[in-house]
Design a protein that fits this description.
single chain, alpha+beta, Alpha-Beta Plaits, 39% helix, 38% strand
């Protein structure tokens, strides 16, 4: 069993309120959970209006599968929304 952790750093250029930030992130989180069967949470910069850090975790049979799934998530997030730009991402394998 392998556990993969994907950290996504997002820039929200058009956001000016916490309510607006929630309106951008919540649909994104729901979509990731539904389409990829992963766990997602906002882990950092909760009070910063123009920045968000999401953690995505996946459990798989082996490390290669987990890494591939998280890479697909990052690629998909990069092309999904214009109001949430992917600045950077990194993948860590645990176990």
């Amino acid at each position: 069993m392998a556990i993969g952790l994907l950290t996504l750093e997002l820039y929200l250029p058009l956001n000016h309120s916490l309510k607006g930030k929630r309106g951008i992130l919540k649909p994104l989180i729901v979509r990731l959970r539904r389409e990829y069967n992963v766990s997602v949470c906002e882990s950092d910069a909760q009070d910063v209006l123009s920045r968000a850090v999401l953690e995505v975790v996946c459990v798989s049979q082996n490390g290669a599968l987990a890494h591939r799934q998280l890479q697909n998530v990052a690629t998909r997030v990069e092309g999904w929304r214009m109001d949430a730009q992917l600045v950077d991402y990194w993948i860590e394998m645990v176990g």
